[in-house]
Structure formats: C-alpha cells, structure tokens
C-alpha cells in the first residue's frame, strides 16, 4: 500500500493498563481509564531511523547458551538453514524435557532421577558414535562457548550444556557447518590466553537473593581455590574490574562459563541442587579456565566410554577434544580431578556405568568423579596455567611464619585475613646482598592482593622491620638476582581484628575467620567513620552468632558514636539476619565478643555511607524518589511506569486504541525496553473494518529465523474473532521486520513480553483501518 506523508492531527486516545492472564485482557473500570498519548506520529516512524543496540549483560544468563556440554554452555549462531519437521519436533521435545525439571550439578554427576531417565528414553537416539575428530557430531557448533551445569564460555570456543541446561539443536548433515570445537585444551585447561584472568584476579559479586549460608558457602569454595593456588577472588570494584563473575541462580541450575569472557559481567549459576561445597568448587574450576577431564584427546588411553549405557541425546557430553583444543601442559591424566565425570554420569540406569577407568594388570581401578576437594593435579595444572611462583604460598590462618626456599630467585606470599582485620608482619634476619636502591635483592610488601596495591615498603637492609596493613590482604614478594642456599630473611605475621575504619564509598566488615567459625575468647572493636555529610549504615548479609535470649555469651554491640560510652543502638546474637542499622552521625562503633565455648560462623556486613538522596534536588527522578540504605530508587505515580533508564516515567504500556490510525511503540522506545515487561495493546476498528499493522522498527532478543525459538523476548499478534476465538498471525523476535499484517476481524491484539536479561530497542509500528 502506498502512503502519502502528511501532517495529521490525532485525537488523544484513552487507554488503561492491561495485564496478561491466560490470554485474556483485564480492563479496569472506566473511572481508572487514563488518556494515552502517542509517543511518535506516523510521519516520525516513516521518516526517522532509530539505531539498534543491546544491553551490556549478554553473559549474565548462562541458561541462554545455545548448547551445553554437560554443565558448559555454548552460544549458538543464527542458523540460516531451516529445520526439517522431524528436527523441529525433536528439538521441541528436548526443550520441553529440559524445562520440566530444574537440573543441578549434583544430579548431573551422581546420576539422573528415574523421572529424568524415563523422559530421556522418549528422545530418539539418532546420534551415531562419533569419531574423535568430530566432537559435536550433528549438534550445531556455536561461535561462543559457555559451560552450564558445568558451563563455560568461549568466543569461538565450544561448549555444550551438561545436561538439560542448554538448547540442543540438530542439523542436516549436508548442511553441517565445517566449524568444530576449537577452544578446549587437554585436561580442562584452556589454550585461549584471552580467557585467562589477568594476574590471576577474579572479581566477583553475589546476587542479593542468596541467603547468608549460601554466601558463606561461596566464600569457602573460593578460599579453597585460593589456598592451593595463586588465584585471588576479590569483591568487585566497579572502577577497577570491568570483567567479573556474578553468583546467581538461573533456571539452568548449575552452570558457568569457562574462563574469562571479557564482555563485562558473566554469570555462575548455582541452583538448588548445586549448593554443595564440592559442586561450587567444580563450577569455579570452569570459571578459572578448565573443561572436563575426560574430554582430553588422550583420554582413550585412560578411560573407556560405554556409549550403550548413555542416556539418549546425551552422547555429545562424552566427546573428546583435539590437541589444538586442549593443552595438558605436560601433566598426566588425573582420575582424581574434581573436574572428572563420575562413573554413572548420564547413565540409562542406576547400576550402569558410562565411563570407566581402563584396567591395568595388578592395579585397582581408581575412583572417579569426586566432589570433595581439588586434586593434586588440579592444583598443579592451575599453578602452571597462571604461572604461579614455585616459591611461596597463600596464608589464610590467623598466624604464620615463612621464609624463601633455598636458591629461590622469586617468591610470593599472599596473606589473607577477613574484612575488619589488619595484618601485622614482622621481618627479621635479613640476609640480603647490598645494592643501590635495593635493585638486585629485596623484599617488597604491598597493602593488598596484587601489583597495583600500594607499597608498604621495600627492604634490603636492617635487622628487623614491622609493617601493618591498612586492609585485610597483604602481598609479600622476594626477588634475588643471586640465589643462595641460606634464606634471605624470616617473617611472621598475625591477623589483628578491630581498629579504625575510614570508609570513603563502601566497605566490608566480618567476624574473625569468617566464613569459618570465629575463635573463642575474642573481642574486636571497630571505630567506623564516613565523610561528614553522611551517616554510617551497617547492612548485614550473613549472621550466625551463638544464640541467647539476653545475648550474654557471644554478641555484636553497635554504638552511635566512636566511644564505648556512646548510646547503644542495637545488640545482636542468634541466627536471623538483623535489620539495617544507621547512626545519627558519621561515626559508629561496632564491638564483637565471643566467650570460651560454642563458636559459630559469625557475621558479614556491608558498611555504607548513608544520606537522604531524595532531599537532593538533582537526584534525577522525574516523579517520585524513595530513599534506601546507601542509595535511592525512583518510582512513578499510578498510571505511569519507570523508564528503562531508572529515572524517567512514561505512560504505562498497553491499552485500548480505537482511532482509525496511529502508532504503537515498545516501552522506552527507542531506548532499551525494560526487563520483565508484559504489555497488551488491543486495536478495535468499526464493524466490517480490518486493521493493518506495519512495523517500521524491530529489534527483540531472539532469532526470528526460527519462531519457535522466541522463548526470551517476543511479540505476538493475533485477531480476536467474533466467536471469542483467536486467529494467530505470528510470534516474532530477532531483528528482521515482520511482514505487513492484516487482521481477520475488527480487533487486533499485540502482546509484548520481555524476560529478566538482555534488552534491545524493541519495536515501532503504525496501524490503519479500512474495509
């Protein structure tokens, strides 16, 4: 249809908010109907071009990976070739199968439930045994790899979910892409240098939906990795760490990317069946950069894959990788690796093995699939991968001693205390060659965890030195150009709790030894100060202190000021996370006391500088401002909703439209549409008239080449017929403009839905009515 562009005057449309409920539209009473103002005219949409963009959270939902290799997720490419009818049915059955049960890592490793076994038998087993150089067989090869249930991500890497966490796709062999998995190295170690975390530092965040027990579990698992390697897990500093991991819970269960994605935040999903120490350590192994042990190219010399016992549709999890995909770094096959499959993983039956160690005459078969602790091989592999100094170690205890090994040229000691503790280091018996400015041999002490941390001192002379850290971490480095048999120095340290804490932006406070049990007969006093125009706010994240009705044994006492005689704000003990506490000034004193018996995990809290941001004129909220601890949030009046920028308000999406022509745009268009949005528009024309919908801009998450894949964000269009039935005109997502749509009745309904991650610019459309 030809359109002549004109300036058209439009009457204001009246609309009301609509809610999706079993495909019906619930319309509020006439008294609540508000005026609807179109954001753009028809001429605007026909003449203007709006750029497309995507939110910066592509890796924050590992469940959206196209495939999974066990718990490893892989991003899939848009498939230009259409699937056959049988392939579509197969894929839809697999999708339904995966969604019926929330799968976790523990389930994957120890065998699936009878229910899952039954469902798996319903999936046709059309995958032949694949050659070793055909790692994916007839599964689509992704451009980016991600590990779910053991999820890991590689750009140009390859990962398939560990179970039912990812999307399985089948492709005709004659259309099979020539690409193959290219990003896995022998023994779980990645060969992609860009996937290695810079300086062995892995910044992390933990979603607020996790309990204090979960937070403690995650920290225990991270400390386990730190204790045996030079890996350092650090709370993310937004200014310092552009790339980081976020502990979250997605529907895929247990999954993570392999190594560093390099695109900002990336998720490590810990589902309900995965919140066990060994499983979290395993998932962190993927984050560090490891695939599963049994995928090594040389695995056939060490284990046998019993393919007849593997659940239908799960054979790809046992494919091995090629030498250019995996790098074992010279280490032998490790049956004891925490990254190894168990004997019955993906088994058709409880007592059927899918993977077995090869018999060696005179030797007992080794056990495989342990989820207890890092093996010696895991530790050695990590230290080689991250080039950890051979001399030195990580200390996580309250006291300790150390000195360089004989003939050591470079040593590094990493001392870690809990937040709220400082480290007192004593250096003695210096036996260092004299040099100008300590160039040839020296001891360097830094106030933090890496080379960017402030230097507390460089020592090459003198008999005794005492250094106190300002924070809870200390890095000690010894360098010698002339290695010798006699140690260059001796050192001892002690973690001391309490003291003055000056918080400029945000800080952390923890009981001694958290998340492990605090020591008996401990007393710690912290004096906290924030800038003068703020108040001190304490927000507890974990809390487990010996319980008593009067809190007379172990307790936390909070004072409104810096002295013990200052007014007491709260006294806490027990196992319930306390409410936030705020001082009346910029000063607060926190006292922690434990007696001689019954120790618990203690507490972890955020220190925030608090003030009423809503009293500041430039807070940016268009309509209403709500003050929160340490921050604020904007809200909107009835009939309006918050823009995706979190500041502006716009008319609530959806509504009834009765004009003969007009425009419809997604919420916040042309900016990114909001998360978790459901909108319904219903256009009603005169009887005997029909409605034509013409899209001028379309940009939704998903792949519109295969409409059944629009499972994240989507747009549905259908006609409402006179017999209350509907005529479906299509389900749309992706970036391709839908064709012109003409209704089959005088009522056309448009339904837009977005999920909890990945935003795009949405859609814009014009409509007109006629006979």
From TrEMBL:
Enzyme class, first EC level, given as a word: hydrolase
Domain Peptidase M12A: 188-389
Alphabetized Pfam families for the sequence: Astacin, CUB, FXa_inhibition
The entry's keywords: Developmental protein, Disulfide bond, EGF-like domain, Glycoprotein, Hydrolase, Metal-binding, Metalloprotease, Protease, Repeat, Signal, Zinc, Zymogen
Cystines in this chain: 252-274, 254-255, 497-524
Domain CUB: 391-496, 497-610, 653-770
SMART domains from the UniProt entry: CUB (SM00042), EGF (SM00181), EGF_CA (SM00179), ZnMc (SM00235)
EC number: 3.4.24.-
GO process annotations (BP): cell development; dorsal/ventral pattern formation; imaginal disc-derived wing vein morphogenesis; positive regulation of activin receptor signaling pathway; positive regulation of BMP signaling pathway; protein processing; system development
Reported cofactor(s): Zn(2+)
Example of a GO MF term: metalloendopeptidase activity
Protein origin, superkingdom: Eukaryota
Binding, Zn(2+): 282, 286, 292
Membrane-spanning ranges: none
Cofactor comment text: Binds 1 zinc ion per subunit.
GO CC entries: extracellular space
Domain EGF-like per the UniProt entry, residue ranges: 610-650
Active site: 283
Database matches in PANTHER family: DISCOIDIN, CUB, EGF, LAMININ , AND ZINC METALLOPROTEASE DOMAIN CONTAINING, DORSAL-VENTRAL PATTERNING PROTEIN TOLLOID-RELATED
UniProt-recorded name of the protein: Metalloendopeptidase
Provenance organism: Brassicogethes aeneus (Rape pollen beetle)
